[in-house]
Amino acid sequence: MESLRQKSIKLTSYLQFLLESETDARSKQQYTVITPRNVNEHGSQLSIQVREHPKELFNKLESSGVICDFREPNVIRVAPAPLYNTFHEVWRFAEILNQ
Fold it and tell me: Looking only at Cα atoms, what is the longest distance across the chain?
């Protein structure tokens, strides 16, 4: 279990890094990660608050093969699973989100 938790922390931290270090100003205005930064205060998911057209963005992610969920009114939750998600898939998600 410890090795799974460590991979979970690394996957989620990598995703948060990618989303928060995006240099495109338009992308930064589009969403905010609202999950606490401290890894001891969250599990293996990030909540992303979307400012404009959240449901449309969620549908685009799903049509691109991303499995996530939507919470009204404007939050997309993403949970990289340490058993089967890769760092490449986390990177791919960030790329799709920022397009």
Answer: 39
